[in-house]
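To whoever picks this up:

The nightly regression suite flagged 1086_t:CDS:1 as changed. Nothing in the input moved, so I suspect the structure step. Input below, exactly as stored in the fixture:
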Amino acid sequence: MSDNIPLPSVEVVDQKWKKADVINFLQENQDKLDLEDDDIDIIKKNRVSGPAFLELTLEKLLASPYKLPGGPAEVIANLVNKIKGEEQATTASNQEVQELKEKLAILQASKVKEE
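Regenerated output under the current build:
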């Protein structure tokens, strides 16, 4: 979805983005995000600024006042999560867990050899 989209930092979105910046970002990436004009218009009508954009969740986007269709709501919620780095944090955590499991397996194997 948004793999090829250059993402702004959380700090930039939170501290510098106005409503127009949110809309411009969505419009510039509309094709890559597979959003329709109506989807972006809903964000525009709700006057979403940078800090408010960072607070958008799937639940909020599906509910009033947004009431976005499921597909666009998922896309925007995932985009917000990527900007906030939550997806990267989850990936890092999964990698750490896997590394710990491998180390544990090595330790258990060496303990069995000692016995």
